[in-house]
Amino acid sequence: MFSFKNLAKVVLASAFALSLAACGDGEAEDAGEELDEIITDAGNAVEDACEDVKEGVDAKDQDC
Known about the structure:
Blueprint: H1 4-19, H2 25-56
């Protein structure tokens, strides 16, 4: 079963891979680093939202 976090990573990676076709060799490394940062930020945002929801419903397990 796919979680929203995994789906977000796949969508971002796919969009980024398509955008690399227009980049030169030097730009690809910079773009890769930017993609890593975007994916990390998206994953953190999803995890934060999950924790907020669990906190709002007083779930016993606060980890996502």
